[in-house]
Inverse folding.
């Protein structure tokens, strides 16, 4: 553990051979990035891509680099998923050309998953790859999208259709930035943390249960712990299956086949991603329960925890035929059979490719 002047800093190492990097988690990190990450201080210029809602944080980051005589350019993007498009990437490419970016220019993504995915994609492709540094500012991006190297933009016909794997040189998680995050966004991020508990860490799950009120109140010491543990979980999976080849990384999709269908049919924007994941995980557990993989107590514990975090625990009232149609086309389905990651106990999951459409229908809203 290292220190900034006033606070402890936790470290998670993502082991990926020559592409290994550190995630530092703490408070007051933003102005100190060059001293905290020596590899980053070697950049000769910095291109910060930030979300409009975190411009004050971008100014802090810039100050730290300017103090080291590193040239900083800041590109501010409007917030929203529709920024993850070719046009936005193209504008960023133009700016990189204008500042004569070269291999020693580093792209720093400061924002949620939208900025991380877009700026990451630009870094992966400009000049065949620029160094990338991540400063996630939503809870979801801290525990999920900034770890693992997936970058990408959307195509009008599909989300994340265009992209590349590009690991960052480092990730700085400064929990102070969460103070301004809207409550609903914060709770949506908690759903992914519940997911890590459910799929691989029963201790984390129990910690969330015991500290739900303090976590909702964003107590720093609790945030530090749950973010660190989540990053360790994701790093562990990613380091064993960096490019989604062995199937292990698929466990991170627990609840997501349902969630993607809810998001697609419900229209992106009606539910936040984490909200759809929460309801999706409940559906997945109902399938597990029916197959006798888990007991009712385990399923009920997850529902109670999601309720404590004020997240949805019922599927939306959408046509089950339409939802099934999306699930059939999901990239995780093979030759028409439905593949699901299902819990086998608290803290463990496995892949099942024999889930029938009747099983799925049985856990969707009975109303339609
Ligand atoms: N690459 C991956 O592995 C991966 C994993 C999961 C999700 N994602 C992607 O992440 C995206 C969703 O990310 P997200 O949930 O972070 O959404 P987001 O980036 O849209 O941010 C959510 C909202 O919070 C605002 N915001 C961000 N930080 C803030 C702060 N500190 N204070 C106040 N407001 C703030 C943003 O302006 C936005 O309105 C999706 O596009 C998804 O595909 C990628
Ligand atoms: Zn997710």
């Amino acid at each position: 553990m290292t220190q900034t002047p006033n606070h402890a800093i936790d470290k998670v190492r993502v082991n990926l051979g020559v592409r290994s990097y550190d995630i530092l988690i703490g408070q007051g990190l933003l102005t100190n990035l060059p001293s905290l990450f020596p590899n980053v201080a070697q950049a000769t210029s910095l291109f910060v891509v930030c979300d409009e809602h975190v411009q004050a944080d971008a100014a802090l980051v810039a100050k730290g680099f300017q103090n080291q005589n590193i040239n900083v350019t800041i590109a501010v993007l409007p917030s929203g998923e529709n920024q993850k498009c070719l046009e936005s990437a193209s504008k960023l490419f133009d700016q990189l050309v204008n500042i004569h970016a070269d291999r020693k220019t580093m792209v720093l993504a400061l924002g949620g998953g939208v900025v991380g995915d877009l700026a990451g994609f630009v870094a992966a492709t400009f000049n065949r790859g620029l160094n990338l540094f991540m400063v996630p500012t939503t809870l979801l991006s801290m525990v999920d999208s900034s770890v693992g190297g997936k970058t990408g933009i959307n195509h009008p016909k599909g989300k994340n259709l265009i992209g590349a794997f590009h690991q960052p040189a480092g990730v700085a998680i400064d929990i102070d930035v969460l103070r301004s995050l809207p409550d609903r966004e914060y709770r949506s991020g908690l759903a992914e943390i519940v997911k890590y508990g459910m799929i691989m860490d029963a201790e984390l799950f129990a910690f969330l249960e015991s500290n739900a009120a303090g976590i909702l109140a964003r107590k720093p010491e609790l945030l530090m712990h749950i973010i660190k543990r989540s990053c360790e979980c994701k790093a562990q999976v990613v380091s064993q299956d960096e490019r989604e080849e062995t199937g292990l990384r698929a466990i991170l999709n627990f609840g997501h086949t349902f969630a993607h269908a809810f998001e697609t049919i419900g229209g992106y924007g009606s539910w936040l991603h984490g909200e759809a994941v929460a309801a999706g995980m409940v559906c997945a557990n109902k399938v597990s329960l029916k197959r006798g993989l888990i007991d009712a107590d385990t399923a009920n514990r997850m529902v109670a925890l999601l309720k404590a975090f004020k997240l949805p625990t019922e599927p939306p009232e959408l046509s089950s035929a339409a939802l099934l149609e999306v699930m059939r086309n999901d990239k995780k389905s093979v030759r028409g059979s439905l593949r699901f990651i299902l819990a086998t106990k608290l803290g463990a999951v496995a892949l099942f490719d024999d889930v029938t459409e009747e099983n799925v229908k049985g856990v969707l809203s009975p109303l339609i």
Observations:
- The mean pLDDT is 94.
